[in-house]
């Protein structure tokens, strides 16, 4: 049985004080909620403060990015071990905004995944197609390339430890959401591909999240799909009540 994961990516929002206010409100709203992994991903400057606030709670901490070297002359970057040291247990890798604005590629995503696993963190590896690729009928081709590239050189045991997040780029922050059927088709294909790469047991166990304008009013139907194991939430994660409702999803 795959344990669902609901992760909130706060992106470039919230000062330390604002982050603490949000996570305190969230902590109260999800107190006692079980059967789901709850994750928040604040900005780097708030990681330490949020880590202290959620200690002992049912909320875990993620970074929004990570570099692949352990240390060195890489101004502006943060190593996996540094994230673990501050209290992270997850790291978001290869988000479409990182690919779009900062030149990340399947190859650099792969380096980040390997370094994150080596440090004992759980990577949340993002994949997804643009609107032009979707309209051109290339969705499965693009996603397959990203999954294959991101997992290159990993053993089945390593792939067992990571999470994949399918986020159609055209649905991120736009208010547009893939239909449950569209999302399920891609999730099922990702699971099939993981089976080809790492075997049926790994494919059956890997968690695949959906991201792209997930909200309180559409999470239930999305989570009712056979191959959707959780959500990577953007805007709706910035309000404690809406994110808590997503955490408390009900499958039909």
- In one word, what is the shape? globular
> What order do the strands of the largest sheet run in, or round the barrel if closed?
1-2-3-4-5-6-7-8
Q: Which architecture per CATH?
A: Alpha-Beta Barrel
Q: Mean pLDDT, as a whole number?
A: 96
Measured by DSSP, the beta-strand proportion falls in: 15-25%
The major beta sheet can be summarized as:
8 strands, parallel, barrel
Spans of 5+ residues with little confidence (pLDDT < 50)?
A: none
String of helices and strands: EHEHEHEHHEHHHEHHEHEH
CATH class: Alpha Beta
Q: What is the straight-line distance between the termini?
A: 17 Å
Q: Keywords for this structure?
A:
252 residues, 12 helices, TIM Barrel, globular, eight-stranded parallel barrel, alpha/beta, 43% helix
Which SSEs are present, and which pair or pack?
Elements: E1 5-9, H1 16-29, E2 37-41, H2 47-54, E3 59-63, H3 80-86, E4 90-93, H4 96-102, H5 106-118, E5 122-127, H6 131-135, H7 139-151, H8 156-159, E6 163-166, H9 180-198, H10 200-205, E7 207-211, H11 219-223, E8 230-233, H12 240-247
Parallel strand pairs: 1-2, 1-8, 2-3, 3-4, 4-5, 5-6, 6-7, 7-8
């Amino acid at each position: 049985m795959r344990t669902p994961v609901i992760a909130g990516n706060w992106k470039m929002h919230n000062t330390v004080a604002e982050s603490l206010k949000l996570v305190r409100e969230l902590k109260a709203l999800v107190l006692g909620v079980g059967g789901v992994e709850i994750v928040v991903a604040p900005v780097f400057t708030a990681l330490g403060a949020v880590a202290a606030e959620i200690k002992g709670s049912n909320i875990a901490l993620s970074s929004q990015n990570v570099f692949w070297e352990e240390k060195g002359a890489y101004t502006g970057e943060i190593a996996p071990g540094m994230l673990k040291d501050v209290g992270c247990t997850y790291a978001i890798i290869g988000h479409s905004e990182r690919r779009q604005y900062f030149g990340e590629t399947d190859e650099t995503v792969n380096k980040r995944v390997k370094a994150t696993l080596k440090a004992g963190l759980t990577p949340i590896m993002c994949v997804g197609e643009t609107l032009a690729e979707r309209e051109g009928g290339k969705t499965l081709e693009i996603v397959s390339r990203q999954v294959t590239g991101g997992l290159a050189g990993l053993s089945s045991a390593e792939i067992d430890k990571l999470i994949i997040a399918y986020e159609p780029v055209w649905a991120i922050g736009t208010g547009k959401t893939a239909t449950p059927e569209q999302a399920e088709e891609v999730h099922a294909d990702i699971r099939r591909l993981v089976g080809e790469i790492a075997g049926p047991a790994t494919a059956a166990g890997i968690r695949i999240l959906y991201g792209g304008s997930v909200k309180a009013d559409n999470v239930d139907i999305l989570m009712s799909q056979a191959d959707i194991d959780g959500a990577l939430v953007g805007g709706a994660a910035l309000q404690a009540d809406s994110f808590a409702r997503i955490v408390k999803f009900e499958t039909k």
